[in-house]
């Protein structure tokens, strides 16, 4: 195992496009770090630079105590799992798992032992003589993971390994990857565009946008205290609601004249009388009941029951909001609903910089 350190690592293509603007962070020995962001944000490019598959334009990359900027991929002591399984179709599971070790000239006894260990850990022991075409997508992805495992590398790199799987299989294999990390204790860097994968797998998360790191923290710290509006909107499904208005005392004055009480929250320093963005997660809105301070009246635009909860789509003076509530009787679509909010869970952002305002 080994730590991975990046110091102002950049990637600039020949046409001047900046794919990674300068990444600085450390993946601790044995940590599972997730790189997350929308398509084109630079997360896969960053992973490929760690792997040695993309040339580094600037900065320093260390694996362990060794600078590896100019070290060939095969000499970096890394194992990589790609989005495509890339299994050899004419080889059995056993042969796929063993192939890389054979190329490296490992003794047959070592190969057999490592293949058995990986197969037992991934539930593939009774499939070793199957060909990939006789297996499900989840099983093939486990073989791809096993092929990386048998190398016993210092660092595992996983590039969107679940994106080809359906929702049920993604959940299953995601659980298996988390269990695998706990068993092996290996340093892992995992790339995904799926914020649910990032939140459930990562011990820490690096959020990227347009090649720039937006924030690095634990999943719940990112969710509860996002550094800017991008992080606030990217993490969470449905996304955070955002109200724009002028802060007047303990209320937000919206453009249409609606006055939204913000009682129970710490106001950002120096924001009084100025325009602010107020973020409210869908679960922090609720239908008002007797004794509640009604924050606003909104029209119900749609109801989406999804079993254990209901997404209520609201219109507030032309602004679309989403409320997430447990199953309960609600007014019909088109009717008005009195809405209360949890003041202790509000987020304030500067409308120009979109950075978090400190309370």
Question: What features would you describe in this structure?
Answer:
This protein has 359 residues and is an alpha+beta fold. The chain has helices at residues 43-51, 93-103, 108-122, 137-149, 167-184, 195-201, 219-224, 229-234; strands spanning 4-12, 18-27, 32-36, 58-63, 66-67, 78-81, 155-159, 187-192, 204-209, 212-217, 241-248, 251-254, 259-261, 275-280, 285-287, 296-305, 310-316, 319-325, 336-341, 347-349. It contains eight helices and 20 strands. Strand 1 and strand 2 form a beta hairpin. It is elongated, with a radius of gyration of 24 Å. The mean pLDDT is 92.
* Uncertain stretches of 5 or more adjacent residues: none
Q: Describe the sheet with the most strands.
A: 6 strands, mixed
* Neighbour order of strands in the largest sheet: 6-7-8-3-9-10
Strand element count: 20
Quick gist of this model?
This protein is of the alpha+beta class and 359 residues long. It is 24% helix and 32% strand.
Write the layout of secondary structure elements.
Blueprint: E1 4-12, E2 18-27, E3 32-36, H1 43-51, E4 58-63, E5 66-67, E6 78-81, H2 93-103, H3 108-122, H4 137-149, E7 155-159, H5 167-184, E8 187-192, H6 195-201, E9 204-209, E10 212-217, H7 219-224, H8 229-234, E11 241-248, E12 251-254, E13 259-261, E14 275-280, E15 285-287, E16 296-305, E17 310-316, E18 319-325, E19 336-341, E20 347-349
Parallel strand pairs: 3-8, 3-9, 6-7, 7-8
Antiparallel strand pairs: 1-2, 1-4, 4-5, 9-10, 11-12, 11-14, 12-13, 14-20, 15-19, 16-17, 16-19, 17-18
């Amino acid at each position: 195992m080994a730590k991975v350190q990046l110091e102002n690592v950049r990637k600039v293509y020949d046409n001047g496009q900046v794919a990674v603007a300068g990444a600085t962070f450390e993946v601790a020995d044995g940590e599972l770090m997730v790189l997350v962001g929308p398509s084109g944000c630079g997360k896969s490019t960053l992973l490929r630079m760690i792997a040695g598959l993309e040339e580094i334009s600037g900065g320093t990359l260390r694996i362990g105590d060794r600078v590896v900027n100019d070290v060939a991929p095969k000499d970096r002591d890394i194992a990589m799992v790609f989005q495509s399984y890339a299994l050899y179709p004419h080889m059995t599971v056993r042969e796929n798992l063993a192939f890389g070790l054979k190329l490296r000239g490992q003794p047959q006894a070592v190969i057999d032992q490592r293949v058995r260990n990986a197969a037992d850990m991934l539930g593939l022991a009774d499939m070793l003589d199957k060909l990939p075409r006789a297996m499900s997508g989840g099983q093939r992805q486990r073989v791809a993971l096993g092929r990386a495992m048998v190398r016993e590398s210092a660092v595992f790199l996983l590039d969107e390994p679940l994106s080809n799987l359906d929702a049920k299989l993604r959940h299953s294999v995601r659980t298996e990857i988390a269990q695998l990390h706990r068993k092996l204790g290996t340093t892992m860097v995992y790339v995904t565009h799926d914020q649910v994968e990032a939140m459930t797998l990562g011990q820490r998360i690096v959020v990227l946008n347009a090649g720039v790191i937006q924030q690095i923290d634990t999943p719940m710290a990112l969710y509860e205290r996002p550094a800017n509006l991008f992080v606030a909107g990217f993490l969470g499904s449905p996304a955070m609601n955002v109200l724009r208005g002028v802060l007047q005392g303990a209320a937000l004055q919206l453009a249409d004249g609606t006055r939204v009480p913000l009682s129970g929250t710490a106001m950002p320093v120096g924001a009084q009388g100025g325009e602010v963005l107020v973020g409210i997660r869908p679960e922090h809105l609720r239908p008002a009941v007797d004794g509640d301070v009604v924050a606003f009246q909104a029209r119900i635009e749609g109801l989406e029951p999804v079993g254990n909860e209901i997404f209520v789509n609201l219109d507030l003076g032309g602004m679309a909001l989403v409320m997430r509530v447990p199953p309960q009787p609600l007014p019909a679509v088109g009717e008005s609903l009195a809405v209360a909010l949890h003041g202790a869970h509000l987020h304030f952002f500067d409308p120009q910089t979109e950075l978090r305002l400190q309370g």
